Amino acid sequence: MSVVDSPATRRPDDPGRSQQGRVPGHVAPKRRRQRGSSSTPWLLALPALLLIAGLLGYPLIRMLVLSFQNMRLRELLSGRTPPWVGFDQYTRVLTDGVFWAVVGRTVAFTFVSVIISVVFGLSIALLMRRVTRGVRMFMVVAMMFVWALPQLVAAQIFRWMTDSDFGVVNYLVDKLPGVDYQNHSWFVNPWQGWSVITTLVVWAGIPFLAITLNAGLTQVPKELLEAATVDGATPWQALRNIILPILKPLITIVTTLSVIWNFGLFTQAWVLRDGHPEPQFQTLATYSYTQAFGQSRYSLGSAIAVITVLLMLGVMIFYIRQMFRIGEVD
Amino acid sequence: MTTITKTPGTKPLSAGRAPEPKRDLKIATGLSHVALVAWALITAGPLLWVLLASFKSNTEIFLGKPFALPNSFSFDTYVNAWSDAHIGRYFINSVFVVVISTAGTMLLGAMAAYVLARYKFPGNRAIYYLFVSGLAFPTFMALAPLFYILKGIGLLGSFTGLILVYIAYSLPFTIFFLAAFFKSLPYEIEEAATVDGASHIRKFFQIMMPMARSGLVSITIFNIVGQWNQYLLPVVIMSGPGADQKLLLTQGIAQISVSAGYQAEWSTLFAALVLTILPMIIVYAIFQRQIQAGLTAGAVK
């Protein structure tokens, strides 16, 4: 009966009532005990809270402050407080054509890469339901390895594969009749370069999507699909009207996560371009980083980073809220 | 779809009524096998190619026959990578950091997620959103301030600092998923324990943790992978005097590949790349059963 402190309290009208309704002699000692430890829930959450506040929250606030100042190398070395410049950095960024080109490129890349990844991930997950258990396990293992590959390593592999002199891709494409791809450089033409980057991101991203969505598919009740088959539904109808609605929350989550991850594309572009991405291969993340650390315009880099987050939140707010709500309701 | 036709309930039906759709299904199943095998090749191809190259000598790599077998399968490149390029030390550093920080992440994350999912108190939602909003922020943005904070508290270039940072950056995702998972667990057992006078701590460790096992396993794997993956964070944090002994594997790899362009020991690099995959094979071997069950049910409830 002592639901007062119990985590099981889900009914909002409960606390007052249950206190009146308790049997005095029997429950009272326990209540006293529980009151003594009522701060325990807080204590359990406290370490995590402190770490996040200190190492994630505080840096973000610092960055926000920095974006309203003008921190250059001089201030950094002397330790002097950089001058306060208000919205100057933001005006500078927002009136810069280069910045908007970078924004457009990042958005386009995110859009294309997420669509391809999710469509492929979902198709592979659906196919995996159809094949035998052995093949399925083999798939999961193969994908585990690709998923577990550090981005840096995956990017190194792709860099080497697309190497203009010794890359395996040139070697293979060159084998096609009538095509001369010897010593072809994949990063002269930005379209080709971006297709290499996109391929890399999609290749590395699909395993997480396919494994997660495959897990979600196991939750689709077989009876529903059977009933649909008996009623003469085509596989396409079954997919549209049964599987997708059930899978929708999960698809929302993985899509949102993919957008967040791909929007922050850094390592892949960085490694494939040898740490010096040309202007046409800059994304918001690399652009902010080069401005801050390459050019020692720390405040400008911070302003770009803040705008990046605002842009992402602006576009994604609906989905992020939905994702939170999915995590909440149950 | 195949499973459907196999279930006893529908078998007589589909067999008696419509033989044609069944043949269609067979073709479809065959096609799905072909498609998946093709895709598996694309997925695993680059990895196999790296494995092959890791056994070649530097000259063989530049010979221009990427699919030729190496002259001899020797582990010289691995020995080189392990000792000469210090990959061995970085490897052990990485394992050490990831083991401790994953354990820490899981403990702190599970405790926080449990409280947020199961207790009602003022500020609960606010804290939850605070935690989870960390998901939306790309890591690279906090790099510079992070550097100064750690420098300020004297943890720059130390494993302690790196581990704390790893934990902090893994918590949002961990809490987001585990909170949802804890919510989906039945309340009755916990109520019974409360009635029997179990303390909060005891309920958490002896009842909730075992019940949440599959969810915990999937998020553990997720965190191991995520933290093994880190590159930018260690680059920023493992700097300063004496840090060259404490580099992580990903940094070591970057070092080899940056060091001298075409003069670099590419064969060493490939061996190092293969070594990064090794721990995942071990993790997979350990968690094999849980991955089959946990990854397929846990992460998504």
Automatic annotation (TrEMBL), chain A:
Provenance organism? Paractinoplanes aksuensis
The record's Gene3D superfamilies line, in alphabetical order, gives: MetI-like
* Main subcellular location of this protein, as a coarse class: membrane
The UniProt keywords, alphabetically, are: Cell membrane, Membrane, Transmembrane, Transmembrane helix, Transport
The topology of this chain with respect to the membrane is: Multi-pass membrane protein
A Pfam family this chain is assigned to = BPD_transp_1
Q: Which InterPro entries match?
A: MetI-like, MetI-like_sf, UgpAE/MalFG_permease
**Could you say which protein family the record assigns here?**
Belongs to the binding-protein-dependent transport system permease family.
List where the protein spans the membrane. Answer: 40-61, 98-126, 138-158, 191-213, 250-271, 298-320
Specify the domain of life of the species encoding this protein: Bacteria
Q: Where in this protein does the record put region Disordered?
A: 1-35
The lineage is: Bacteria, Bacillati, Actinomycetota, Actinomycetes, Micromonosporales
Give the signal sequence positions. Answer: none
The compartments listed are: Cell membrane
Q: Does the keyword Ion transport apply?
A: no
What name is this protein filed under?
Sugar ABC transporter permease
Q: Where is the ABC transmembrane type-1 domain?
A: 103-319
TrEMBL record, chain B:
Start and end residues of each stretch annotated as Disordered: 1-20
Q: Which domain of life is it from?
A: Bacteria
PANTHER family found in the cross-reference section: ABC TRANSPORTER PERMEASE PROTEIN MG189-RELATED (PTHR43744:SF12), ABC TRANSPORTER PERMEASE PROTEIN MG189-RELATED-RELATED (PTHR43744)
Topology versus the membrane: Multi-pass membrane protein
Q: Where in the cell is it found?
A: Cell membrane
The family this protein is said to belong to:
Belongs to the binding-protein-dependent transport system permease family.
Pfam families under this entry?
BPD_transp_1
Q: What is this protein called?
A: Carbohydrate ABC transporter permease
Q: Which UniProt keywords apply?
A: Cell membrane, Membrane, Transmembrane, Transmembrane helix, Transport
Task: Extract the PROSITE patterns matched here.
Answer: ABC_TM1
Q: What is its main location?
A: membrane
Which ranges carry the ABC transmembrane type-1 domain? 91-287
Name the residues that span the membrane: 31-52, 90-116, 128-150, 162-182, 211-228, 266-287
CDD domains documented for this protein: TM_PBP2
